[in-house]
Specification:
Largest sheet: none
Order of helices and strands: HHHHHH
Radius of gyration: 12 Å
Distance between the termini: 18 Å
Number of strands: 0
Amino acid sequence: MNATTIGLSAATGGVTKDMVERAFAEKDVAALPVDAKPIFTALEDEARALIGLSVNDAGDHLGQWSDRLDAVVTATSTICG
């Protein structure tokens, strides 16, 4: 997954649908452990909310994006640790 690039792109107002679809490819999401899917889905939902937003509008979402990305990092560390 290339989810980390979405936050960087949001900070410049450049998140596209294609970026989100690449970051959350169906085959990758399908391969996640069942318990992790809701955490990744929440991050994907936030990524979709960033599509097409200007820098100013995206800024309103970056705190939520960061929180959800932190949850993904924690889940990944738990699963892989």
